[in-house]
Specification:
The protein folds into three domains: 5-78 and 153-222, Rossmann fold (3-Layer(aba) Sandwich), CATH 3.40.50; 91-146; 226-299, 2-Layer Sandwich (Alpha-Beta Plaits), CATH 3.30.70. 35% of the residues lie in helices and 29% in strands. It has eleven helices and 14 strands. The strands form three sheets. It has a six-stranded mixed sheet with strand order 6-7-8-3-9-10, with helices on both faces. Helix 3 packs across helix 4 (111-120). It is globular, with a radius of gyration of 23 Å.
């Protein structure tokens, strides 16, 4: 079975600015795919090329092995998306806006189907509220409902966490996992909240300045044994000496005024923490950083 989506050597310039310089990626059916990069890296340009909103200068995009130029209608009917912030008719209700969104795909859902879709994204009981009265989080939820209303195979979520509080982010994570596991959707998610992305993606790509930096499965890229450890203390100099003389596998990356950043193995972090506490050291904070954050910072630092 070919990948559900494949982009090969995509180039796009806007006058003298080279937005994409050979981006390639592969998305397999049924996976959650993380599409990551700094602002200006080329993520939105890639998504717009993918959705045929703009035409690339060169390169090819394939849907199930077929060039999308040859199956554009089939492809677009198989995709649901939120590109940046969703927008709807301000003076119409959520129910009516969702129905109109379905009509764009030649669908005419029943009221029950509309209400079920709104309930799925956490908008049950808010069907009659006008869009202009919604919070940003509610608008994001309606955007996801609109992306799902025609039952597409691929869901593209560009910064879906915008405007969501912590509870909303947890519910969004659960919804994305449900879309994958129960609804068998393929999901492409672009987000700056790397800690959330790390929890759910099966594979990912990081692009920077319009080029591929790294792509692979989450297991290969993120699940090694080493972790970065941050220790905050008022006695960093003394603490550094004790860490260096400890029996554990550690490497101190940097020492700031009140903070030590070091690398250790996941197996030894807990024991090191325990030993430092038993030494009665003045430690204000001790925490491991998410691996995706470290990988992202390392690969996009220049």
């Amino acid at each position: 079975m070919p990948p559900i989506l494949q982009i090969s050597n995509l180039h796009k310039s806007f006058k003298k600015f080279k937005a994409l310089n050979g981006v390639s990626l592969t998305v397999n059916q049924g996976e959650i795919f993380g599409f990551l990069g700094c602002n200006g890296a080329g993520k939105s340009t890639t998504i717009r090329c993918l959705l045929t909103l703009i035409k690339p200068d060169s390169g090819e995009i394939f849907f199930k092995g077929k060039n999308i130029n040859e199956c554009r209608s089939e492809f677009l009917s198989s995709v649901g998306c939120i590109v940046e912030k969703p927008d709807f008719y301000k003076n119409l209700s959520l129910e009516t806006n969702l129905k109109l969104s379905a009509m764009l795909y030649n669908k005419n859902p029943s009221q029950k189907e509309i209400y079920d879709s709104l309930e799925l994204v956490g908008l049950k009981g808010k069907e009659k509220i006008k869009f202009k009265a919604c919070s940003q989080g509610m608008k994001q939820r309606l955007g996801i409902a609109a992306a799902l209303i025609h039952n597409p195979e691929i869901i593209i979520l560009d910064e879906p966490s915008n405007g969501l509080d912590p509870r909303g982010m947890i519910e969004l994570r659960q919804l994305i996992l449900r879309m994958k596991n129960e609804m068998k959707k393929t999901i492409i998610i672009s987000s700056h909240i790397l800690s959330e992305v790390e929890l759910i993606v099966d594979s990912l790509i990081i692009i920077d300045k319009g080029v591929n930096v790294i792509q692979g499965s989450a297991n290969e890229l993120l699940h090694g044994s080493d972790v970065m450890v941050n220790i905050e203390s008022t006695e960093t100099d003394r603490l550094v000496e004790k860490i260096k003389n400890s029996p554990y596998s550690t490497h101190i990356e940097s020492v700031l005024e009140n903070r030590i950043i070091m690398k250790s193995t996941m197996k030894e972090v807990a024991q090191l923490h325990k030993d430092l506490i038993l030494m009665d050291e003045p430690i204000q904070n001790f925490y491991t950083r998410k691996k995706l954050e470290d990988l992202f910072l390392k690969l996009t630092e220049n």
